[in-house]
Amino acid sequence: MSAAERRPRGKGPAPRRPEGRRVGAAPARARFDPGARAVLAVALAALVLYLPGLGGAFVWDDHLLVEQNPLLRTAAGVTRALTSDFWAASGGASASGLWRPLVTLSYAVDGALSHWSPAWFRTMNVLAHVGVSALVSALALGAGLTPLVAGLAGLLFASLPAHVESVAWISGRTDVYCALFLLLALLLDRRARARGRRWPGAWPLVALALALLSKETAVPFVLVVAAAERVGLGARRPSLRSSALWLAPYALLTALHLLAHQAWVQAPQANPELAAGAQGWRALALMFPGYLSFAWPWFPHSPAVTLEPARVAGGLVLAALGAHLAFALALAWLLWRRAPAAVPLALFWLTLLPTMLVDVTHGYFLYAERFFYLPSAGLVWAVGVGVEALRGRPRLRLAAVGLVLVLVVGGAFTLESLLPEWHDDAALFQAMARRAPRNYMARTQWARQLALTGRDAEAARELDAAEALDPARPEVASLRALLAYHRGDWVTTLAQADRALARGNRDLEPRLLRVAALFSLGRVAAGRSALDELRRQAPGQPAVESLWGQYLLQYGKPGEAYPVLAEAARLLPGDADVAYKLGLAASDAGRSGEARAAFARSVRLDPARYDAWLELARTSAAQGDRSAAAAALARAERLPAAADGRAAALRARLLP
Predict the structure, then answer these.
(1) What SS3 state is found at 479?
(2) pLDDT of residue 128
(3) Cβ atoms 366, 305 nearer than 8 A
(4) Tell me: the pLDDT tens digits for 332-388?
(5) Which residues are within 8 A (CB) of 295 and not within 5 positions of it... i.e. 6 or more apart?
(6) On the CB side of 295, how many CA atoms lie within 13 Å of its CA?
(7) Taking all residues of the chain, what is their mean pLDDT, rounded to a whole number?
(8) Are the CB atoms for 243 and 215 separated by under 8 Å?
(9) Alpha helices (H) along 555-609
(10) Are 385 and 334 spatial neighbours (Cβ–Cβ below 8 Å)?
(11) Which residues contact 138 (CB under 8 A, 6 or more apart)?
C-alpha cells in the first residue's frame, strides 16, 4: 500500500511539519539523553542526602573564620582579607601560610545576604557538593563510560561518608569549592580539546583561577591535564608540541598564582624537630593508606585525626611506604600505556600529594577527611573505569555493579548517622571523643566544650586523658589555664598560659588568658603591653576587643568601654562573660535599659552566673520592675554562691 493509500480519506494532504520543529513526546525525550538523566539523578541524590544537615549552627573553626571575623563585616575589612592570610582575623601568633580569597569573599557575601545565618552558609556548601557530584558523573561520561556506570561513580562520590566533614562543616568549604572549579576546568578543557580548538579558551582558565583561589590543592591541575593529554582523553592523542602549547596557559596561570600567594601571604614556620628526619617520612608513608581507608563507608569516621608515626612499628611503616611506591609506579605504567584509568588515578594522587608534602615538611601530621574530598573524585572515577572494563564479561560486570551499589547504600546510611554530629560544637566534640578515644585533639576539644559549659571536673578528666596520649603538646596547658580562670585562680592561669605559649601554642586563647591574669594580679603595665600586642596582631578581633573594653571599664572609662564591648558582644552572641561586662559598662554609663538587656542575656547563656543575677535584679528594680527583680533574686538565692549573703542583703535593700 502506498503512502497515499494509507492516508485517511477526506483529510486532504498530510500537514507539512514546520522546519526545525519536533512533533510528539519521543523526540523531546531524546534530547534529554540517558547521560543527562544520570547526571541529574546524581545531583538530586547529593542534595537529598545532605538536606538533614542544613539546620545546624556555626561549628569549631566557623566561629573564628566566619561568625566572629570582623574583616567580613565591612568593605575595607574584606579588601584587607582578600590580600591577607586566610586566618588573618584569628589572632594567631604566626601565619598559617594559606591564601584562599575566593572562599573569604564567599563568606562575606553569604553573611551580607543571610544576616549571618549558618543555615545559609551550610546550604551553599551543599549546593556546591551537588555540583561536584554532578561533575564527577559528567567527567566519567566524557571519558566514555556508559550512563549507568558514570551515574554509579557520581552516586559513590555523593554518598561517601568521608565528605561530611567538608560539606556539613562551613569551614570545609575550601575543599568543596576547590573541587567544584577544578573539575569544571577539567571538563571544559577536555571539551575544548575534543572540538579541535587550538588552545583551551578562556573559560577553563577562569575555572582554574577560581579553584586556585579556593585552595592550594588545585596547583597540580596542569599535571592532571598533562596526564589527560598523554592518554588522549576526549580527543585524538596530540603531539608533544601540541600538548606543550595546550598546557602553557595553565602553567602560566599557576605560576602567577604562586607568585601572588608568596607576595601576600607569609609562609608558615616549619617545626625543625619534625620537618626533617625519619619521623616525617614515616608520616608520609602512613598517610597514603590512611587516606585510602577513608573511602571505606564503615571506617570509624572522625575529624582531625592526628598521626602518631613515632609509635608505629617499623614493619608497618615499610609496608605503607611500599604500597605508596607501588601505586606511584603503577600510575607511571598506566600513563606509559595510555590506559583510561591513568587520568582519574592521576587526579587522585596528584591532588593528594600537596597535602602530604606540606604535612611532612612542616611537621603537621594531621590527615583529616576534608583533605580527601577532591582526590576522592579521581578515586570513584577510577572505580567506574574498572567496572566499564568488565563490559565483555557480563557476570563479573554485574557483580562489580552490585558491589558499588552496596558501597553507595552503606555510605548513605553511614553519612546520615554522621550529619547530626555536625549540628553544633557539643554534638561534634562529644562524638569525636567517643569515636576516636585515642585522638588527642578529640579529647582536648571535648574538654574545652565541657569547660565552657561549666563542667570543669569532667573537663579536667579529659585533659588528663589527653596528656597521657601526648604529654608534649601545648593544648592541655592552655585548657588548664581556662579552668583556673573559671576558678579565679590567677596565679595558675598565668603559669599554665605561659606553659602553653612556651610549648609553641599559636592560638589566641592562652594569650587572652595571660592578659586577663596579668590584669587581675595587678600587673597592669605588663597586661597593657600584652593587650596592645594582641590588638596589633588581630585588629577588631572580638575576643581581643572584649579584653580592651574590660580594661577601659576597670580603669574608670565606662563611656569608652561601652561601644567596644557592644561590638564584641554582637560578634560573640554566645559569650556570657562578654554580655555581663557589657551590662556593667552600660550601667556605669547610665544606660539602664541596655544594662538590663545585657544582664538578661548573660544569665540566659549561663544560668549559674551569680553576679549577673544580682545585677539583673538591681537594674530591674531601678526601672521599677519589682516582680522581675524578685524573680532574679530568687534565682540567685538558689545558687551555691548565695552563701556569701549578698543576694539576701540586696533583697532587703531593693524589696523591703
Answers:
(1) helix
(2) 98
(3) yes
(4) 999 999 999 999 999 999 999 888 877 666 655 667 889 999 999 999 999 999 999
(5) 160, 162, 372, 376, 379
(6) 19
(7) 87
(8) no
(9) 558-571, 576-588, 592-605
(10) no
(11) 39, 150, 187
* Predicted model pTM: 0.86
Q: Which residue reads 567596644 in cell numbers?
A: 564
Q: Rounded distance, CA 427 to CA 421, Å?
A: 5
Residue type, 96: S
Rounded to 10 degrees, the C-alpha dihedral 300/301/307/313 comes to 20
For 255-303, how does the pLDDT look when each residue is reduced to its tens digit (9 = 90+)? 999 999 888 887 665 554 444 455 666 777 778 888 888 999 998 888 8
Q: In the numeric block, which cell numbers belong to residue 504?
A: 609553641
- 300, 438 in Cβ contact below 8 A? no
Give dist(CA 466, CA 447) in Å, integer: 9
DSSP percent split of the chain into helix, strand, coil, nearest 5: 75, 0, 25
Q: And the C-alpha cell for 603? A: 544569665
CB atoms within 10 A of CB 590: 11
Contacts of 234 (CB under 8 A, 6+ apart): 142, 143, 190, 191, 193, 194, 228
What pLDDT, on the 0 to 100 scale, is given for residue 244? 93
In angstroms and rounded to an integer, the radius of gyration of the C-alpha atoms of the chain is: 30
Distance separating alpha carbons of residues 64 and 415, to the nearest angstrom: 26
Helix (H, G, I), strand (E, B) or coil at 366: strand
Chain centre to alpha carbon of residue 655: 52
Instruction: List the alpha helices (DSSP H) in 213-336.
Output: 221-231, 240-264, 278-293, 314-336
Taking a C-beta distance cutoff of 8 angstroms, is the pair 150, 141 a contact? yes
Cell 609509635 sits on residue: 311
State pLDDT tens for residues 160-176: 999 999 999 999 999 99
